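Inverse folding, one chain.
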């Protein structure tokens, strides 16, 4: 329903729910460490075992997402929007974005086993913070923030600083536990 205003609290609830649910990806990864152990015992690398976990987690999530998106596209009769003129650069950017995201997931899968027992506990937040800092810095450099108010830019900088301090504390605590 394009153009329908919803209460602020509905949007906030969706954001909070999405944030909590997104952490479940790492919970699934953490609870699936036996797959990595089995892969190593079978003569494969920990990275190969990690990729099996990602295939299971992301593949199962993709089925539900693709089915729901397909349903909405059919219900709203918007499949034709994918055939708009001059849309190829947008497809190229979408593919690039997907490849970069997948590369980040694979990098996490490669690094987490090397971080020891706390790898998933330290690696996942680090991965998310690096993504947020990178996205906001690029947004700032490309002018995405230029029309925002000074208080909004200040809030962004303070939020990023808090995230960086939190990662420093998490890394320090991981070093003590290691």
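Residues assigned per position:
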């Amino acid at each position: 329903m394009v153009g329908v205003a919803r209460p602020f609290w509905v949007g906030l609830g969706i954001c909070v729910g999405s944030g909590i649910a997104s952490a479940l990806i790492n919970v699934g990864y953490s609870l699936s460490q036996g797959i990595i152990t089995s892969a190593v015992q079978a003569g494969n690398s920990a990275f190969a075992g990690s990729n099996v976990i990602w295939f299971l987690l992301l593949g199962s999530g993709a089925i539900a997402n693709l089915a729901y998106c397909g349903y909405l596209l059919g219900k709203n009769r918007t499949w034709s929007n994918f055939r708009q003129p001059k849309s190829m650069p947008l497809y190229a950017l979408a593919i690039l974005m997907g490849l970069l995201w997948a590369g980040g997931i694979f990098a996490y899968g490669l690094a987490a086993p090397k971080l020891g027992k706390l790898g998933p506990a330290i690696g996942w937040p680090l991965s998310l913070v690096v993504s947020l800092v990178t996205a906001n810095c690029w947004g700032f450099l490309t002018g995405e923030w230029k029309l925002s108010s000074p208080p909004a830019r200040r809030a962004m900088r303070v939020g990023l600083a808090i995230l960086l301090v939190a990662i420093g504390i998490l890394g320090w605590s991981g070093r003590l536990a290691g």
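The mean pLDDT is 86. The longest helix spans residues 46-75.
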